[in-house]
Amino acid sequence: MLKEEFRRAFFSWAFVLALVITSVCFAIGLKDYGGPVAPLRPEDRDLFPFDRNAFDAFIYAAGMGGFFAIFAPLIAVLPFAASFITDRTSGYITFILSRTSFRRYRTSKYVANLLAGGVSTSLPLLVGYGIINIFYERGLPPVPAPGEAWYAFFPWVNANGTFGYLYRTKPDLYIFFLIGLAFLWGAAWATAGLAVSSAVHNKYRALVAPFLLYVVAHFVISVLGVPEWSPLNNFVPVLYKTTSPVTTFTELGVLFLLSTLGVFALAKKKHVYE
């Protein structure tokens, strides 16, 4: 059963579409960041080393300059989150439940959906980072002496927010943290979408609901004056300087726990059949 749900989740046009959207969002951000060589006179480039570099390029493309951070919840739910609804409308659920238990069916779908959501929001970032490392220099601009001006795309000693101190000391580890975080958030929002599809009968409502929650939660939390708890700022913690491991992983954990409880509480055999 798990193998079949994996096949349906990963070998589908919806999953390919999610990967394409993530890749396009990343590419737009990278284009906005600029090419591997800054528009300087050749004689000035030695004075400003690493003014364009692989680490800053990734951070900007993946979070600060593109649309990925905004649309990530919608991307995560595309591959498989509405599958309870599509299984019911297509009659597939009747076929599959004649061969396995509802509990096994639900658990297999939960795992496949979780992984599909996480991969759709992280795999293009991982591939993009590999490509960036081929063309962009691997290094960071030096920190200027007190009183001197910065010449860097990001005038940072450390990056903003959660684990930002890794930016200068272990930049590759910091990038892999951001990619791993994208996987975890994609998995959590995909699970939220699956929970919604357990409770509603309209596929499009199930797909849009997590995105609306994401946007509304960001707006309300920002109005309340605690933006470090915004789901947007914790998905891309570099966006806000007071995000921290506490805000990032507490919010992620609560989302994942409530979404998981929603799937197993709402996805009852009688309701899914209806």
Automatic annotation (TrEMBL):
Record field: transmembrane: 57-82, 110-136, 173-195, 207-226, 246-267
Keywords: Membrane, Transmembrane, Transmembrane helix
Protein name: Uncharacterized protein
Organism of origin: Candidatus Cryosericum odellii
